[in-house]
Amino acid sequence: xxxxxxxxxxxxxxxxxxxxxxxxxxxxxxxxxxxxxxxxxxxxxxxxxxxxxxxxxxxxxxxxxxxxxxxxxxxxxxxxxxx
Length: 83
Fold this sequence. Notes:
Blueprint: H1 2-9, H2 17-25, H3 52-56, E1 59-62, E2 71-74
Antiparallel strand pairs: 1-2
């Protein structure tokens, strides 16, 4: 997804949130990728720590290739599928 977005907005100045959202939302590829984007204007607290017990309850599947960066988080009520 990020590769497709980067190719779509290459060389264009990212001068506002509106421009960025429009470029991301206009991203497609030959495989049928469509991306929806919207600006989140909510404020979030910084420094919130996730407990080990909370993390262990995630339905997360780490991919074989570079698992620190490649993973899928599934809803808790579904079975994870190995990719």
